[in-house]
Protein: Acylhydrolase
Amino acid sequence: MKAKKLLFVSLFINTLYMLPLQAQDWANLAYFSEANAALSASGKTGPRVIFMGNSITKGWPEFVPAFWDNPAYINRGISGQTTPQMLVRFRADVLAHRPDVVVLLAGTNDIAGNTGPMTLEETFGHLQSMAALARLQGAEVVLSAVLPVYDYAWKPGLAPAQKIVRLNGMLRSLAEKEGYGYIDYHSAMADERMGLKPELTYDGVHPNEAGYRVMGPLAEAEIVKALAKK
Structure:
């Protein structure tokens, strides 16, 4: 019996040591650590527009790399992330670089429950906090509507469509109240079920090239307005 207990303890300890780095670095602060150091050391001048988000932001350069030819644009998207994770890494990945404009696109993974159950009010609060921190530092803020989703393939049955509509209404109201920019991706990309139009997505959640080509001009229009305020 004692030997079995020792074996169990040994296996348990080994399992802890074998946990992936992601489990230890919950917000994935290490993901952009090298890129952040390089940016800080670059002495780069000119405006900085930082895009904070999840896989939709991260995947944009793969589908429409030309959009990111703009030297002002800095991508800080990490796949699968939720808003509390982004809030934790917001100082290191965004504020530390003194951006002129911060573009926030997040919330769909909260609704999908990627890091556990979360209310819309909690998601909204995290986005509100990031926006307030950016403004406090002097950056212009651009909030983005969460893209439409009818169902999540990796977690079906959550009925996200109307939740996204509600969250976007909260974000639009915040933008109007605080004078933030607002990119209405949802209206431009939703079908009759309040999901992504099939021609704009490869999986019902993430945009394809056509989807990003819809998003690009909408984002640029709000960024131009934001930069004009500086």
Notes: Confidence is low (pLDDT under 50) at residues 1-19.
